C-alpha cells in the first residue's frame, strides 16, 4: 500500500485529497483507491490577477498558510508521494515564481524535489473528467464534464476509458466574472447583461471545439455546481453524500440562478450551505451556469446536470495511482 496526496490550487480555493493505493487483481485498473481525508480552504489566490496580471502578495500569504496546514496533515498521515497542480490564476500571473518557490519549500518536507506544477487547460479538463465520471456507469456516456472554477471553466467530451472527443478551457470562472463585470452587490441589470454577453462569447468558442451534441450525460463539478445543488435541495448543512450524484434540471435551475444573481453576497452567506469565501462570487458562477445551459440546449437534448463531488483532485490521485502500480 502507498499513501499519496493531491493538492489542487485554483483561483478561489486550495484543496487536499489523501488516499491509499493498493495493487489488486479485483479491479479493471489493477489498483484499489481508498480516501483517507479531503480538505478545502478558500484562499482567493486569483485575487485581482485578471486586472493586474500578477499574484497579490497577500494572496500568496493566504495560500502559504493553507498549504502549511496541508503539509502538516500530510506528514501526520505519513504521505509518501504528493503532486500539486496549479491552474488558471498561476497560469495567468507574471510573477508566479514566488509561488513556485513557496510550494517547493513546503512540499519538499513531504517529498523532496516536489513543487507545484502549472497544468494546461486541456490537461486540467482531462484530469477533471477522469475524476468526475468515476462513479457513473459507462453506458451513460459519452459524458460532457464541466469543471467551473474561479478563473477558467473546462469542458471535455469523452466516454470512459476512450479517446477524448473534444476538450477546451474557457477563460471564464466565478471570480473572473465577478471581478471584471459584477462590481455592484447585488449586480445591476446592466452588469448582468454584460456578464451574460461575456459568457456567450466564451460559449461560442466551446461550440467550435467540443462536440456537445455527442454527450448523453452532462456532469457539473466544482464549488459553484455543488453549492447550487445544496441550495436546490434545501439542505440545512453542506452534505457531500447528498450532493454527489444529484440532478439539477434546467427549468428549475434557471429560477434558482436568477434568485442567486439578484441576492447580495451578505444574504447568500447567511445560508449554511454557502461557504463564506464563496458567497461573493456565487452570482458570477450562476451567470456562467446560465450561459452554459443555453449553449447545451442549442446542441443537445440534455436538459439536466448530474453533479459530482469528485473532480480534478480525484483525477490527479488516479494518475498517481497508475504510476505507483507500475513502479511496485
Task: Give an overview of the whole structure.
The protein has 328 residues and is of the alpha/beta class. Helix content is 45%, strand content 21%. The protein contains 13 helices and 11 strands. The strands form 2 sheets. Strands 8-7-6-9-11-10 form a 6-stranded mixed beta sheet. A hairpin with a 3-residue loop joins strand 1 and strand 2. It is globular. It comes from Corynebacterium pseudodiphtheriticum.
Descriptive tags:
328 residues, 6-stranded mixed beta sheet, 45% helix, 21% strand
Q: Please count the beta strands (DSSP E, at least 2 residues each).
A: 11
What percent of the residues sit in helical stretches (DSSP H or I)? 40-55%
What percent strand? 15-25%
Structure class: alpha/beta
Q: Compute the number of helices.
A: 13
Q: How would you characterize the largest beta sheet?
A: 6 strands, mixed
Task: Report the radius of gyration as a whole number of Å.
Answer: 19 Å
Shape: globular
Q: Spans with pLDDT under 50 lasting ≥5 residues?
A: none
Give me the side-by-side strand order of the main sheet: 8-7-6-9-11-10
SSE arrangement, N to C: EEEHHEHHEHEEEHHEHHEHHHEH
Rounded mean pLDDT score: 92
- State the distance separating the first and last CA atoms: 9 Å
Amino acid at each position: 500500500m502507498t499513501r499519496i496526496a493531491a493538492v489542487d490550487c485554483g483561483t478561489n480555493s486550495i484543496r487536499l485529497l489523501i488516499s491509499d493505493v493498493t495493487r489488486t487483481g479485483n479491479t479493471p485498473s489493477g489498483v484499489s483507491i481508498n480516501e483517507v481525508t479531503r480538505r478545502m480552504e478558500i484562499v482567493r489566490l486569483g485575487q485581482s490577477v485578471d486586472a493586474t496580471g500578477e499574484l497579490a502578495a497577500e494572496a500568496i500569504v493566504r495560500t502559504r498558510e493553507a498549504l502549511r496546514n496541508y503539509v502538516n496533515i500530510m506528514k501526520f498521515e505519513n504521505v509518501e508521494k504528493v503532486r500539486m497542480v496549479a491552474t488558471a490564476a498561476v497560469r495567468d500571473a507574471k510573477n508566479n515564481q514566488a509561488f513556485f518557490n513557496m510550494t517547493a519549500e513546503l512540499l519538499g518536507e513531504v517529498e523532496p524535489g516536489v513543487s507545484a506544477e502549472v497544468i494546461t487547460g486541456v490537461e486540467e479538463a482531462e484530469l477533471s473528467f477522469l475524476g468526475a465520471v468515476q462513479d457513473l456507469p459507462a453506458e451513460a456516456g459519452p459524458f460532457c464534464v464541466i469543471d467551473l472554477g474561479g478563473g477558467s471553466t473546462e469542458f471535455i467530451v469523452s466516454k470512459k476509458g476512450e479517446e477524448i472527443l473534444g476538450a477546451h478551457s474557457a477563460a471564464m470562472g466565478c471570480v473572473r466574472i465577478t471581478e471584471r463585470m459584477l462590481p455592484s452587490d447585488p449586480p445591476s441589470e446592466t452588469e448582468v447583461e454584460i456578464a451574460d454577453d461575456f459568457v456567450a462569447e466564451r460559449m461560442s468558442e466551446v461550440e467550435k471545439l467540443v462536440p456537445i451534441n455527442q454527450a448523453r450525460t452532462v456532469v457539473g463539478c466544482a464549488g459553484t455546481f455543488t453549492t447550487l445543488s445544496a441550495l436546490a435541495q434545501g439542505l440545512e448543512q453542506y452534505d457531500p453524500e447528498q450532493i454527489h450524484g444529484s440532478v439539477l434540471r434546467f427549468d428549475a435551475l434557471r429560477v434558482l440562478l436568477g434568485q442567486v444573481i439578484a441576492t447580495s453576497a451578505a444574504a447568500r452567506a447567511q445560508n449554511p450551505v454557502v461557504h463564506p469565501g464563496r458567497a461573493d462570487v456565487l452570482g458570477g458562477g450562476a451567470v456562467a451556469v446560465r450561459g452554459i445551459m443555453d449553449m447545451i440546449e442549442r446542441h443537445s437534448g440534455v436538459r439536466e446536470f448530474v453533479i459530482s463531488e469528485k473532480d480534478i483532485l480525484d483525477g490527479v490521485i488516479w494518475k498517481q495511482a497508475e504510476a505507483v502500480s507500475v513502479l511496485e
